[in-house]
Amino acid sequence: MTEILNLMADIGARAKAAATVLATASAERKRAALISAADAVWKNRAAILEANAEDMEYGTKKGLTPALLDRLKLDEARLQGIIDGLRAIAAQDDPVGEILAEWDQPSGLHIKRVRTPLGVIGVIYESRPNVTADAGALCLKAGNAVILRGGSESFHSSLALHDCLQQGLRDADLPEDAIQLVPTRDRAAVRAMLTMTGTIDVIVPRGGKGLVGLVQREARVPVFAHLEGIVHIYIDKEADPEKVLKVVLNAKTRRTGVCGSAECLLIHKDVSATIGTGVIRALIDAGVQVRGDAGLQKINGVTVADESDWGHEYLDMIIAAREVAGLDEAMAHIRRYGSNHTDCILTEDPIAAQTFLNTLDSAIVMHNASTQFADGGEFGMGAEIGIATGKMHARGPVGAAQLTSFKYQVTGNGTVRA
User: Which among 31, 39, 158, 409 is least buried, having the fewest CB atoms inside 10 angstroms?
Assistant: First the structure.
């Protein structure tokens, strides 16, 4: 344990020193580092995929579910997605130094509120190796140093991607300590990060309920919470059947292991026998296990849902479903069992849609769109560190702008207070 504490203290000290340099690094140097990193990912794609094969073998032996293995897997298409994300972040306007507000006071003071980096960010994540590139790039763009602690399953993939980020930093003459990867699978490193109040300014956990719960319980450093995605879709009585079929199938089956995957269907009782039956039959035909309440169990193939199915994040080809009397009951269910992540209404009734969007307090609320769009890249952020479900500072997809704070710059002319 002492060895791990010493390791993390050294990493933290180097990150803090790097953060001082990054705070005033030019937008052009940061952009150049990201472009170079993207080039390195493509150049080293064979080595990255070989490292990922090691991780896939490790994950298979560990007994990961097919959905979690899918999160872990890299191929050339997904590497191209990582490259595209790095280039998209590079192309964005630099958030550091942006003037958020500016005004004059009767006293003669001129005041500006200006974006500034947070400092050092610790990112703790599971399985998905692309987070290594996304988090490293976003923190760099926002002028922050970052300490990355990936999951044990993605250890080799993360190391290979981290090497590419380091190459980008070297090519742009920025400190390599700006993006550090914890070089051990020892879980003691996670607990050490949670208490590094002298060097880490904020922790971003990205993973399952167990990881996020541990971080929230034990962290002495401020946390951007990324809770599980207990994602609901409410099918209103005025829903369009064709849109329902397209959206629900995509929301559940496109990729079941992502946090935007739909986990619960709420179906207005007036369309349960028509639209509801049709979409449930389509889900079952697509290989999804549907666990329904008493009103839906009459549909052939629906299994019995119990209390544990409400508020459950499956990350698998399973979905819970129940009938509701209307919009109010649907929203009450979401408030009770949801995780304030992403929720959707399917309806052609503009009043019902606006009521849902205005009333629910989830970080992302949607109307007639697949919940698989709950992703920073799809929001135009290039990528995301995670989707924050808390209410302080960052909320929803956390991109570069959300990884900044601000300060007030106050200018006078020999101005004194009366």
Answer: 409
What mean pLDDT do residues 78-97 have?
A: 95
pLDDT(332) > 90? yes
Q: Which CATH number fits domain 231-373: 2.40.50.40, 3.40.309.10, 3.30.360.10, 3.40.50.300?
A: 3.40.309.10
* pLDDT score, position 380: 84
Bridge partners of residue 319, in order along the sequence? 290
Q: Residues 142, 394: contact at Cβ < 8 Å? A: no
- Can you give the pLDDT at residue 207? 74
The tokens describing 47, both together, are 């080595």
Q: Where are the domains of the chain?
A: 2-226+398-411, 231-373
Task: Tell me the C-alpha to C-alpha distance, in Å, between residue 57 and each of 15, 45, 126, 164.
Answer: 32, 18, 16, 23
Pairing of strands 404-411, 396-397: unpaired
Please identify, in words, the CATH class of the domain defined by 2-226+398-411.
alpha beta
**For 35-46, what is the HEC assignment?**
HHHHHHHHHCHH
Is the CB of residue 132 less than 8 Å from the CB of residue 161? yes
Digit-coded pLDDT (tens) for 389-412: 877 777 888 889 999 999 999 999
The model's pTM is: 0.84
How many angstroms separate the Cα of 393 from the Cα of each of 76, 118, 153, 388?
Answer: 36, 11, 31, 9
Q: What is the pLDDT at residue 214?
A: 85
Q: How far apart are CA 34 and CA 262, in angstroms?
A: 33
Radius of gyration of the chain from its Cα atoms, rounded to whole angstroms: 23
Instruction: Kindly report, residue by residue over 225-281, the tens digit of the pLDDT.
Output: 777 789 999 999 999 999 999 999 999 999 998 889 999 999 999 999 999 999 999
Q: Say which residues have a Cβ less than 8 Å from residue 191's Cβ, sequence separation at least 6.
A: 218
